[in-house]
Amino acid sequence: MREIGDVVFTTPAVRALRRRFPEAHISYLVEPAAAPIVANNSHISEVIVAPRRAGLGGLAAEARLVRRLRSARYDVAIDFHGGPRASLLTWLSGAPVRVGYEVAARSWMYTQRVGRPRELRARHSVMNQWDLLTPFGIAPPQPEVDSVEMPVDPETTRAVAERLERAGLAAGDRLAIIHVSAGNPFRRWPIDSFAAVAAGLATGDSRCHVIVTSGPSERDAAARVIAEARARLGPSERQRVLDFGELSLTELRAVLDDAAIYIGGDSGPLHVAATSRVPIVGLYGPTLPARSAPWRTETQPAEAVEVQGLPCRPCDQRRCEPGDFRCLTRITPEQVLDAARRVMNL
Q: Rounded to the nearest 5 degrees, what angle is found at the Cα of 344, between the Cα atoms of 343 and 346?
């Protein structure tokens, strides 16, 4: 019931549970935004989408959800979230075994509790999620075996391939995906920096085409990146920065299979990219790669770009102590382009 990236990080645990209990009925409770991550997961028997709704209608919907959970008579409920709603639903499910994190004022809702330090540890989130599998005797995860995953249905793959063809991509062309994350100031790399990277990729390789994507709240930022990148290019190069329109999560995942590189900040789409084999350049501001780098093997290229030596980093993303978001603004386009060339072997 967390955000997109957090749900991606639970998919190795889901795979491990299926391996440990091959005959089990496994239900996954998720909120709508991240539901596409698990919609086609073959290890899951049933996906239950639980929107948040306000008012009396929301209370009625929550009551129906509780009745559904209780009627299923689950043997085990695992709360990967730990928030108030998730812990309450775990308790109300009536499962005799309820596993969750040691959280103040809510631990009593679980029958088995796992410690979770409050400080921001340099430990990968997949490992933190995996701690909840300890009661089931499951060995620690290895990316080679327990990968993150987001299967794509063939219809979406065909539709995306047709869009790429209509956009003018031909055999042998290279596709770069740049995801603009501008909704959260703590994850917001400057627009002109994104534009410089897009223009640099289009200039450096005549076969390279650039698609700029964003979340719904950052569409204006993506449009500005496209416009500014094109303004930096000559007439023959501008067409290489594509105005591809909005992509759903499933469409983004499908287009990544044809991409030469993904560039973006530490947000959900970066972790969607990690479920494919695309080379990745991640931009890390207030967060640490040790905690949220792409969970993948060393044979799948990924490189983190970050500013070292800042005493305020990592932070809880509630207040920027220096006030200038220097953990991101000090990352230069040249650093990102250099990393891009390395992971693409250019």
A: 115
